[in-house]
């Protein structure tokens, strides 16, 4: 894998965690709205909505970059619909992201070695 694939996976992991946190905060705000006078739903709703749209866009980019079949992106999308699903998505992507970063660094090292050999 190249560095762009590793970067796409890393961004997807980051946004999946942010989306999960925003979902949980939105749920808490919803409960507080119904039990107290505190109403942060008009603020957290759009924040969560933007993060969901960003997650879906980054999922499409990662799907394109990694050449996954349809099952993996479908699972990640379904996980994003669950309140803590983004944390599970992050966990499932962690190993693949680390492997992509290692492969990208190894590829960069090989490219530098080829350039050094060509100069000699």
From TrEMBL:
Residue ranges of every copy of the DUF3817 domain listed in the record: 9-93
Keywords: Cell membrane, Membrane, Transmembrane, Transmembrane helix
Main localization (coarse): membrane
TM helices/strands, residue ranges: 12-33, 45-64
Cross-referenced InterPro entries: DUF3817_TM
Location relative to the cell: Cell membrane
Coiled-coil regions listed in the entry: none
Keyword Ubl conjugation on entry: no
Pfam families: DUF3817 (PF12823)
Membrane topology: Multi-pass membrane protein
PANTHER family: MEMBRANE PROTEIN (PTHR40077:SF1), MEMBRANE PROTEIN-RELATED (PTHR40077)
Protein name, as recorded: DUF3817 domain-containing protein
Native organism: Streptomyces polyrhachis
């Amino acid at each position: 894998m190249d560095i762009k694939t590793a970067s796409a996976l890393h961004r997807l992991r980051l946004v999946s965690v942010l989306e999960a946190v925003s979902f949980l905060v939105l749920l808490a705000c919803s409960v507080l709205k119904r039990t107290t006078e505190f109403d942060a739903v008009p603020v957290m709703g759009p924040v969560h909505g933007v993060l969901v749209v960003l997650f879906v866009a980054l999922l499409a980019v990662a799907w394109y970059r990694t050449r996954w079949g349809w099952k993996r992106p479908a699972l990640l999308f379904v996980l994003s619909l669950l309140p803590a699903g983004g944390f599970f998505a992050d966990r499932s992507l962690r190993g693949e992201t680390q492997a992509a970063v290692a492969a990208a660094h190894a590829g960069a090292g090989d490219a530098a070695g080829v350039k050094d050999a060509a100069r000699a």
